[in-house]
Specification:
80% of the residues lie in helices and 0% in strands. With 146 residues, it is mainly α. The protein has one domain: Growth Hormone, Chain: A (Up-down Bundle).
Amino acid sequence: MRLPPLVYLLGLVSFLMDVASEMVYPLLPLFLTGLGAGVSTLGLVEGVAEATASLFKVVGGRISHRLGRRKPLLLLGYGLPALLRPLLALAQSPLHVLLYRFLDRTGKGLRTAPRDALLAEGVPQGALGRAYGLHRGLDTLGATLG
């Protein structure tokens, strides 16, 4: 049984997002220190980023469930970071980077639960493992190549 095109599309989007993210994130500590940030600021930025992603996974899931629609949150969740990434180059202070990371991880959190729900709704029960495995594989490959 072939997987629906939706699985490949979501996998490709995740792949591309991870390639782009992993090309930027390893440079953030160097970029932040170049803006005058210290070690504690680096920790604060990453702590806020990870806490935001975790919190907004719950928020995104709840909104998606209440709306009964997944695509608007997916578009916002993937679009927000994609639109903001080029603006990171304009950051002139650690606060700008903190704001960028907060909004970027908000997008990640908002898209995670609706994406998983969309996969679950669009794939036959017997193919769920393959669908999630393919998606996770493409996501990981994107992170590796990035």
